[in-house]
Amino acid sequence: MLAHHTLSILGIVVALVLGESGTEVNAVLFGSEITNPLLQMRWFLRETGHYHSFTGDVVDFLFVALFTGVRIGVGACLLFCEMVSPTPKWFVKVGGVAMYVVSWCFMFSIWRFAWRKSIKKYHTWRSRWSEEWQLRLNGHLKTH
C-alpha cells in the first residue's frame, strides 16, 4: 500500500514538474482508485456487522471483478500503449511498469482472499446440504 501511494505521489509530481504525461498519470490514478468505493463499502459492512451477508458477498465479488478487469485488464492495455508511445519519457514508463507490478502484487493477495472465502462458503454449503439430506432420509441428523 505504501508503494502504491508513494508511486502515485511521485507520478503526480513528475507530471506537474514536466508539464507532460498528465494523461498517463490520471489514467493510472483513475484505474487505481476506481475500486476504492467497494473497498470502503466492505469496511462499513464490517463495522456495522453486516459483512457476513449476501450484500457482503456481492461487494466482495464486485471488488474482485472490478479490480481484475480494470487494474489488470485495462491496465495492461494502457501500459502497452505507454510503452510503445515515443512521447512519455523513460522514467514515466518505469513508473507505469512499477504501478502495474504493484497492482499484480495486490491481485495475488486478492485472488488468495477470494479463493479462501469461496472454499469456506463451499464447505459451509456442503455441510448444510449434507445435514438436510440426512434429515430428509430418516428424520434424524447423523451424530458421528
Percent strand equals under 5%
Write down the overall geometry.
elongated
Q: State the total count of DSSP E strands.
A: 0
Number of DSSP helices? 5
Structure write-up:
- Pfam families: TRAM_LAG1_CLN8 (PF03798).
- Keywords: Membrane, Signal, Transmembrane, Transmembrane helix.
- It is a multi-pass membrane protein.
- Residues 1-19 form the signal peptide.
- Residues 1-103 form the TLC domain.
- The structure is a single chain.
- The protein has one domain.
- The protein has helices at 2-18, 22-33, 36-47, 54-84, 90-138.
- Helix 1 packs antiparallel against helix 2, helix 3 packs antiparallel against helix 4 (54-84) and helix 4 runs antiparallel to helix 5.
- Helix content is 84%, strand content 0%.
- The mean pLDDT is 89.
- With 144 residues, the chain is mostly helical.
- The chain contains 5 helices and no strands.
